[in-house]
Specification:
Blueprint: H1 33-40, H2 44-53, E1 60-62, E2 65-67, H3 70-81, H4 86-108
Antiparallel strand pairs: 1-2
């Protein structure tokens, strides 16, 4: 910064980029994770978050090499553009069923908050 110039203070950080809905280049592949993230304008951290959640692209691994194929990229693009797809609905139902079962087990537990006894408190009749 030159002497006497003022900083606007409103500079956006380049690593906090909102993902685009379309890749920059529709040709090429297979891509490394970094190349695929650059193609979609995603950070690597966002890629790994999607992988943990099961919403990222399928990756090909062989002998320590990790690539994302054009077919996996196209499947990801279809899921990304249509979040109410059959796969999305199925995973949503699975999460809801898991939550229901966990709640049932929690309520049945002798340690559930509603079953705790508090010494010194009056018990209502």
């Amino acid at each position: 910064m030159a002497h006497g110039s003022k900083s606007s203070g409103n500079k956006q950080r380049e690593d906090l980029v909102v993902p685009d809905a379309q890749p920059k280049d529709l040709s090429g592949g297979p891509w490394t994770i970094d190349a695929w993230c650059q193609r979609w304008n995603f950070s690597r951290a966002y890629f790994h978050k999607m992988q943990r959640e099961g919403t990222g692209p399928d990756v090909f691994r062989k002998d320590g090499i990790v690539r994302i194929t054009p077919r996996a990229d196209l499947a990801f693009q279809n899921r990304y553009e249509n979040p109410e797809s059959e796969d999305h609905q199925r995973s949503k139902r699975v999460r809801q069923e898991h939550a229901r079962k966990a709640a049932t087990r929690a309520v049945a537990s002798p340690n559930h908050v509603a079953k705790r006894r508090h010494p010194g408190r009056r018990v209502r009749a």
